[in-house]
């Protein structure tokens, strides 16, 4: 037997985006349980326009009880859809953005201690805008702010309060430029 072996999986909750499973795990130290969140994955987009400004979304989130800066992102909720196609769809939905210049910046696990969610971050350059197609009350109320690189760098300094996806995406972009 390897050091750890999952011997049982029981779904204890299912939502429209994720499920929660209770795992029974055997190890050399004994048997124990863990509850994990199963998630289909997500994409995030560092969207840069011709003026080298980045699109930041200011969106209300119930989890933090207020507005929060984010980059365009979304769940990989269309089965079998490649991550780039999901990113292109999400950019169009959220800000009405399109681009012919896409680069995969990085992939990361959001929090492997409790979820298998993996996020793929893309760079979309020379983004042009048409009509956004937001869905849901949070998206229809969000605002888009185009922020220059110098301000992005100051937003990420000591005392900043940005989420992991924004921080990872913007730092990956800054490392390229």
Task: Summarize the topology.
Blueprint: E1 4-14, E2 19-27, E3 30-38, E4 42-47, E5 53-61, E6 66-70, E7 73-75, H1 83-95, E8 97-98, E9 101-109, E10 118-125, E11 128-129, H2 136-141, E12 143-148, H3 149-155, H4 164-176
Parallel strand pairs: 4-10
Antiparallel strand pairs: 1-2, 2-3, 4-7, 5-6, 5-12, 8-11, 9-10
Short description:
Helices cover 22% and strands 45% of the residues.
What does this structure look like?
With 177 residues, the chain is an alpha+beta fold. Helices cover 22% and strands 45% of the residues. It is built from four helices and twelve strands, in the order E-E-E-E-E-E-E-H-E-E-E-E-H-E-H-H. The strands form four sheets. Strands 7-4-10-9 form a four-stranded mixed beta sheet. It has a three-stranded antiparallel beta sheet with strand order 1-2-3, with no helix packed on it. The longest helix is centred in the middle third of the chain and has 13 residues, at 83-95. The model has no long low-confidence stretch (mean pLDDT 93). The chain folds into two domains: 4-38, no CATH class; 42-176, Nucleoside Triphosphate Pyrophosphohydrolase (Alpha-Beta Complex). Strand 1 and strand 2 (19-27) form a beta hairpin.
């Amino acid at each position: 037997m390897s050091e750890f072996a999952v011997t049982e999986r029981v779904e204890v909750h299912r939502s429209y985006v994720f499920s929660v499973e209770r795992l029974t795990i055997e190890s050399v130290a004994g048997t124990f349980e863990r509850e994990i969140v199963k998630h289909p994955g997500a994409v995030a987009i560092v969207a840069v326009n011709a003026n080298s400004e980045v699109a930041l979304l200011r969106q209300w989130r119930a989890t933090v009880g207020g507005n929060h800066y984010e980059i365009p992102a979304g769940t990989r909720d269309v089965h079998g859809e490649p991550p780039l196609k999901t990113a292109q769809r999400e950019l169009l939905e959220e800000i009405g953005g399109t681009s012919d210049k896409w680069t995969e910046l990085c992939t990361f696990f959001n929090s492997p201690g409790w979820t298998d969610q993996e996020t793929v971050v893309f760079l979309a350059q020379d983004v042009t805008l048409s009509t956004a197609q937001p869905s849901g009350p949070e998206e229809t109320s969000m605002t888009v702010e185009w922020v220059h690189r110098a301000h992005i760098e100051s937003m990420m300094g000591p005392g900043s309060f940005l989420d992991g996806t924004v921080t990872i995406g913007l730092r990956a972009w800054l490392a390229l430029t």
